[in-house]
Specification:
Layout lengths: L6 E3 L3 H24 L4 H25 L6 E3 L3 E4 L7 E4 L3 E9 L2 E8 L2 H5 L5 H14 L4 E3 L7 H14 L2
Antiparallel strand pairs: 1-2, 2-3, 3-4, 5-6, 6-7
C-alpha cells in the first residue's frame, strides 16, 4: 500500500442504533423509577441524573446516526477521528507515539499516545469535552481515544491496521 493511500472506515449505524435503543430504555427506566417509586431525596437525585445522563447520550447518538462523515480516516496527514463526542479531528503522524487498548466494562477503546496532549485538549469543542479529555488522560494516559465499537471494523483489526500505519510512517 502506498503511503499516500487514504483509508476510510465508516461509522457503524447498526451499532450506534443499538446504543441509541439502550439509551432510550435507560431514560424510560429512570423516568419510571422517578415517577413510580415513592419520592425521597436519593431517588430524586439519582432519577434526575439518570435522565440527564442517558438523555445526553441519546442526543449525542442521534447526531452520530445522521453524521455522513467517515468514522475514521487514515491518510498521509495522520488519523482523522470522528468516532465519539470528544473527537478532535486530525491527529498528526508527527505527534503519535503509539497506541494502547483500554477497556471500560465491555467497551474497548484504542488510546492514541501523543507527544503534546495539551495541543489536542485545546481543540476541545467545549468545556464538557475538555473535562472528558482530561479525565481520559488521567485514566488512560492520553486525552485521545478511538471508540472501535462505533466503527464498521472489529477492534483487533483496527488495532492491527493502526500499528501497521504507524510503523510505515516512522
Amino acid at each position: 500500500m502506498n503511503v499516500d493511500d487514504k483509508i476510510e472506515i465508516p461509522l457503524s449505524k447498526t451499532k450506534i442504533f443499538l446504543h441509541l435503543l439502550g439509551s432510550i430504555f435507560f431514560v424510560a427506566l429512570w423516568v419510571f423509577i422517578f415517577v413510580e417509586i415513592e419520592p425521597f431525596f436519593f431517588i430524586d437525585i439519582v432519577g434526575y441524573f439518570g435522565v440527564l445522563f442517558f438523555g445526553f447520550i441519546f442526543i449525542v447518538l442521534m447526531r452520530k446516526i445522521f453524521d455522513r462523515r467517515p468514522g475514521l480516516i487514515i491518510d498521509q496527514n495522520g488519523i482523522t477521528d470522528n468516532t465519539n463526542y470528544t473527537s478532535v479531528g486530525l491527529i498528526e503522524w508527527d505527534d503519535i507515539l503509539g497506541i494502547d487498548t483500554y477497556q471500560v466494562h465491555s467497551t474497548k477503546m484504542i488510546v492514541i499516545q501523543i507527544d503534546e496532549p495539551e495541543k489536542y485538549i485545546r481543540r476541545a469543542k467545549n468545556s464538557l469535552v475538555e473535562k472528558s479529555m482530561r479525565m481520559n488522560q488521567s485514566m488512560s494516559g492520553s486525552p485521545l481515544s478511538i471508540i472501535s465499537g462505533s466503527l464498521k471494523i472489529n477492534h483487533d483489526d483496527l488495532e492491527r491496521l493502526l500499528w501497521e500505519e504507524i510503523e510505515r510512517r516512522k
